[in-house]
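User: Here's a chain of 327 residues. Predict its fold as tokens.
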Amino acid sequence: MRQPDSKKRGFTLIELLVVIAIIAVLIALLLPAVQQAREAARRSQCKNNLKQMGLALHNYHDVYNKLPIGSRGQREWGVWDWSNWRLSILPYMDQSVLFNRINPNGALSGNDKYASGSIDNSFLMGLLVSVYRCPSSALPSFKDGGVPLHDYIGISGAAPLEAPLNVGYYGCSYGGYMSDKGMLVVNRSVGLRDCTDGLSNTLVVSEQSGPIAGEDVRNANQHGGWAGASGLNRPWAECPEGDNGGVSGDGLWSVGVTTIRYAINPPSKGSGTNNSFEANTALTSYHTGGTHTLLGDGSVRFLSQNMAMLTLKYLAHREDGRPLGEF
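Assistant: Prediction complete.
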């Protein structure tokens, strides 16, 4: 009888390579699935951020019977001490403590790090309100060592448009156009009743969380996410027309709102979107294919970057009277 072989048999080189190859294939299959699951969770959080803003805007409207001013013009030229709608709705997003601590008479421009003489809002440095940050964005959350940047922009209208809709916007912002036919506009409050196109057909807030041609030109990037507008709080009729405002550079430009002029996720910059403070900064995101957008009825839709440009403009206009169809 043969004696049993006492030697233990190990893996051959070929068997080991096969096992390694199988593991590599499994990892290659698993990693994209994990990344897709993570991005799905981030997209869901981004959508929830906009839903919170929508609820806050409606609660604000319940109290004041109007939406907040989209972006306030400052009281003195060169002193950016007024704010935009993002600050106005803080009490309606469980941020009353932060809102009550901010001194409205103090500087709210990040250019001076929120310090203005004896009035100090410098605690805002390094402070990020997470609801204003898209979790999918790879752009920085702060600039200049702590000035917070925000990833969501109010919609002030669209331009240019055909007659008779070619009224209500001005060439007041470094070659761009700024409209007051949206829901969040400069130096004015708009009520929900003013939206004659229907709240489910009108944009209020959208993402602006991605780059254009590799450059960060989000609207908040120039003065931070809390700043207001130029224009000395003048009404629209007094806004000087022409490139750069036409009067010693005293043009109407703002933080917090944009006038729709370009497609979603454009491949390159255009006039009015060359700099982060201009009137026509585009809607952007890191989500594949488009951006999340808040409508006037509080719903959130994902808008394709391939949608018709005219449809996007009509969505931004609260009273154009044009049928939209599916979007």
